[in-house]
UniProtKB/TrEMBL annotation:
One of its GO terms (molecular function) is G protein-coupled receptor activity. The keyword Glycoprotein applies. Its main location: membrane. It comes from Chanos chanos. Residues 698-962 form the G-protein coupled receptors family 3 profile domain. The gene is LOC115804755. GO terms for cellular component: plasma membrane. This is Extracellular calcium-sensing receptor-like.
């Protein structure tokens, strides 16, 4: 037999469907198509189904193709609610209650056609027109959920807390209805929250300033740390306590005006998802998940605790402030932990912080899962761990870490556990000394401790929760069920007890519960004022939807002095205290406030760290270091190690000409053109300037040679002056000789203008002086060469060439040759003169100070003209090379010109290829070499005769060889 649900269903195995109530239907709706119904005709349904006696008259013949056949499964629904269960065979409804008239049936036919062919559905809508109205009964599916603490008054506020830590699922054999989970392990902290709700409500009821003449009630449910139980509690607060509901709409107004809770984000999300569509306000005191700020998903959610969005940002800034760029994270495997760490990691990435590992745990995880997490933490190199964990989740982790002796970790905690007195008072967790984290600001609630300590089982003798609380608090039992157990007398005093329930030194969370209740009360107060509801007959106008609208506009000052309001996302302003776990002299742990975070302040003022003394992990005074790689010093840059996070890097020294003037620089900055990096590569300094200076050895040597050459020339001049009347001096045109000596002296001295820092005048002087003096010198040599050549050609009979190249012509030729060079120099200086410049092309690390020639045409014209005269002089001297030996000055001129030309020919490639000051040195060397060549080749033999061989300094000796050859 099938289960009888009031319709008396049984299976008879026949091909008949019998219904005790007659049908007076006028039409059948099948697959959305109306089918004609012929009333009063009795006909079977061919090939398929016949009706039980007494019902044929109410059926007409169904069209072909809509026949019901044997082997189908049938279900009957009433007003969209199932009335008959689906059964394998045709069913017969019997023993229907006489007062139940079904107004609308939906018969569902399902053919079993196998998995491959799918399933065929046939829907028939049978409408009955009855003389009696339909009465619908809505029954509660499942067991009724009852509140643990409940008082009904004018308006009721619901609350959901995890008063028990664990929801223990019961095993069932699938032959009966599953039983709800059993809640175990009383949570004294959550029980304190529940009593805080009652305290706030009683305080409001006794106040004449808010809701005068109105009493608030409460319904407090237990979520047992379970999402399923939390949702069940939320639905119970909406539906009330009745197992059945009989009215025409199967609906009822919500039992409460608002709900306070839950403490964790995931259960809160479940409740918010259930109550949101019914516009019931939900105010959480501890659900911090940033996801709950989504107004599209949770339009009725509010909270008195800040969103984790701000806490995650604050934690990232805290880690960055202490220089911890290499951290590990451990989170709760729920919405609270997942969303909190996700935001933290996103902000940390922007702050240059790397996460070595990210582990997720939950309080119900088996020990082997915890061991995996502990092993990861042991192997890690990060010494700082950001623990975004719920209090219930961190306890098993800390216990396992204590067993494994993993105590060298610097903990950074979230608000859920950083101020937990229970953790601080547990001796095995002493390694948490030095932990830092953000906590909700503490508050003091006057009268709460007195209220909490007055709780007694006698206040509600039949309340099992109060008895369980008493037994847990005093470790006793009211039933002598176990040998050796201590019996509870009821005379125990909570005032003498110190535990999480009676501890009111840290009421940050209880204060959030308190302000949540007051937020609902203020919303009701303003709503009743606007409705001008002075009597209870008008209170039916107050609905959760209207309360929701007024909660959005709540703005009041709590007794603690805190301004209470909600933003567009239902969040309050984020204000945190930075807490540091420290040990007092008596050995007890206390939470020292060392900073704060306020999201309402400008970004640069949100995080403030006081300069108070801080304790770090291991009770050290020195801040721990947690980095993947040590900071790169000045003068280096970071180079990320391949395949590793950006925080793992090598320090690479900056290249020449680049610097980094801050630690952990990602890039080296190039210096500008006139600066160069110093030895440490941490700042740019002026580049070293290079020029041929008198103070350096090469400059000094060249200057000495220049002065020496000028001095020798001066001595030669003195010798020639002293012996100007001797034949050898007179025979060489003493006037040209003295002019040549003067020009040679100028050539030696002009090389000095090439030494020293280039300036505008020195650049113009050095090239023009060099060009003019050398042309003067070559012109004199050329004159002497022509003179020698002409003089000996004049010895031939009838040759009168000397009259055309006498002293006036010699002077004029020298002047003419020199004026050409002067003209070239004037044009050069006029059009584009040489100028000092900074050459930065040859060397990156230094600047070459040199003279730019200005016009390259002018420069090479000067040198070309000198070269032209030198070649001409060389050719003429070469032609005169066979003159008499005693007076063969031409061969010395030839030799000097050969050296001169060789020097200046080699000068050109050397000048072009020599860098920096060596270019100037090459030019000076060419000047000195050619000058010494002229001086030594032309004047040294004569000085030798004058000073050492005076007997040869006679006209006879000079002319002797010539006469011999003539004969």
């Amino acid at each position: 037999m099938a289960e009888d649900r009031g319709g008396g269903i049984d299976i008879d195995g026949s091909t008949r469907l019998a219904m005790t109530q007659g049908f007076r239907g006028k039409k059948i709706m099948s697959l959305g198509q109306a089918v004609a119904w012929k009333s009063g005709k009795s006909a079977g349904i061919p090939g398929a189904l016949s009706l039980a006696p007494g019902t044929e008259s109410h059926w007409g013949k169904l069209p072909l193709g809509l026949e019901l056949s044997q082997g189908l499964e049938y279900s009957v629904y009433c007003d969209d609610a199932q009335f008959l269960y689906t059964i394998p065979m045709l069913v017969k409804s019997s023993n229907s209650p006489p007062d139940l008239i079904l107004s609308e049936f939906v018969v569902t036919a399902q053919r079993n056609m196998g998995k491959a062919n799918g399933t065929l559905f046939l829907l028939l809508l049978l409408t009955e027109i009855s003389t009696r109205p339909c009465t619908a009964v809505c029954s509660l599916l499942g067991q009724l959920a009852l509140p643990l603490l409940s008082v009904e008054r004018d308006f009721n506020i619901g609350a959901v807390f995890s008063i028990h830590r664990v929801a223990q699922l019961n095993r069932h054999p699938f032959t009966s209805r599953p039983q709800p989970a059993t809640c175990i392990s009383l949570n004294l902290r959550e029980f304190q929250f529940a009593q805080t709700v009652i305290f706030a409500i009683e305080e409001i009821n006794n106040s004449t300033l808010i809701l005068p003449g109105v009493s608030l009630g409460y319904k407090i449910y237990d979520a047992c740390g379970s999402i399923d139980q939390a949702i069940r509690a939320g639905m119970a607060l909406m539906n009330g306590h009745s197992e059945t509901l009989s009215d025409t709409s199967c609906s009822s107004s919500p039992f409460v005006q608002a709900i306070i809770g839950e403490s964790s984000s995931s259960p809160t999300i479940g409740i918010a998802s259930v109550v949101g569509p019914f516009s019931i306000p939900l105010i959480s005191h501890f659900a911090t998940c940033a996801c709950l700020s989504n107004r599209k998903r949770f339009p009725t959610f509010f909270r008195t605790i800040p969103s984790d969005y701000y806490q995650s940002i604050a934690l990232a800034q805290l880690v960055k402030h202490f220089g911890w760029t290499w951290v590990g994270t451990v989170r709760s495997r729920n919405d609270y932990g997942n969303n909190g760490i996700a935001i933290f990691e996103e902000v940390a990435q922007h702050e240059g912080i790397c996460v070595e590992y990210s582990e997720a745990i939950f309080r119900t995880d088996p020990r082997k899962e915890l061991l995996k997490t502990v092993e990861v933490m042991k192997r890690a190199t990060a010494r700082v761990v950001v623990a975004f964990l719920a209090l219930g989740d961190i306890i098993p982790l800390l216990t396992e870490l204590a067993l494994q002796n993993v105590t060298d970790i610097q903990w950074v905690g979230s608000e859920s556990w950083i101020t937990s007195r229970g953790l601080a008072e547990t001796a095995e967790y002493s390694f948490l000394i030095g932990a830092v984290g953000f906590a909700i600001r503490n508050a003091k609630l006057e009268g709460l401790w007195e209220f909490l300590t007055k709780v007694h089982p006698d206040q509600s003798p039949h309340n099992a929760l109060l008895r369980e609380f008493w037994e847990t608090a005093f470790q006793c039992t009211f039933k002598d069920s176990q040998r050796g157990s201590v019996l509870c007398t009821g005379s125990e005093s909570l005032a003498e007890l110190k535990n999480q329930y009676t501890d009111t030194s840290e009421l940050s969370m209880a204060n959030k519960v308190y302000t949540g209740v007051y937020s609902v009360a203020h919303a009701l107060h303003h709503l009743m004022q606007d409705l001008n509801s002075t009597n209870s007959s008008q209170w039916n106008q107050i609905t959760p939807q209207k309360v929701l609208e007024y909660i959005r506009e709540v703005n009041f000052t709590a007794k603690t002095g805190e301004q209470i309001f909600f933003d567009a996302s239902g969040d309050p302003a984020a204000r945190y205290d930075l807490i540091n776990w420290q040990q007092a002299e008596d050995g007890t742990l206390w939470f020292k406030k060392v900073g704060l975070y306020d999201s309402s302040q400008p970004s640069e003022k949100r995080f403030i760290l006081s300069h108070g003394h801080m304790i770090w992990a291991g009770e050290h005074n020195q801040k721990p270091v947690s980095v993947c790689s040590e900071s790169c010093p000045l003068g280096t840059r970071k180079a990320v190690q391949k395949g590793r996070p950006v925080c793992c890097f090598d320090c690479i020294s900056c290249a020449d000409g680049e610097i980094s003037n801050e630690t952990d620089s990602n890039d080296c900055l190039p210096c500008d053109l006139e600066h160069w990096s110093n030895k440490n590569r941490d700042r740019c300094v002026f580049k070293e300037t290079e020029f041929l200076s008198y103070t350096e050895i090469m400059g000094t040597v060249l200057a000495l040679f220049s002065v020496f050459g000028a001095s020798i020339t001066m001595l030669v001049s003195l010798v020639f002056l002293m012996y100007k009347d001797t034949p050898i001096v007179k025979a060489n045109n003493s006037e040209l000789s003295f002019l040549l000596l003067l020009s040679l002296k100028l050539c030696f001295l002009c090389s000095l203008t090439f030494i020293g820092r280039p300036s505008e005048w020195s650049c113009m002087l050095r090239h023009t002086a060099f060009g003019i003096t050398f042309v003067l010198c070559i012109s004199c040599v050329l004159g002497k060469t022509i003179l020698v050549l002409m003089a000996f050609r004049a010895t031939f009979p009838g040759n009168n060439v000397m009259k055309w190249f006498g002293p006036p012509q010699q002077r004029l030729s020298v002047l003419a040759f020199t004026l050409v060079q002067v003209l070239i120099c004037v044009l050069w200086l006029t059009i584009s003169p040489p100028f000092p410049c900074k050459n930065m092309k040859h060397y990156k690390e230094k600047i070459i100070l040199e003279c730019d020639v200005g016009s390259a045409v002018g420069f090479w014209a000067v040198l070309g003209y000198i070269g032209l005269l030198a070649v001409l002089c060389f050719v003429l001297a070469f032609l005169a090379r066979k003159l008499p030996d005693n007076f063969n000055e031409a061969k010395f001129i030839t030799f000097s010109m050969l050296i001169f030309c060789a020097v200046w020919i080699t000068f050109i490639p050397a000048y072009v290829s020599s860098p920096g000051k060596f270019t100037v040195a090459v030019e000076i060397f060419a000047i000195l070499a050619s000058s010494f060549a002229l001086l030594l080749c032309i004047f040294a033999p004569k000085c030798y005769i004058i000073l050492l061989k005076p007997e040869h300094n006679t006209k006879k000796h000079i002319m002797g060889k010539s006469s011999t050859k003539a004969h």
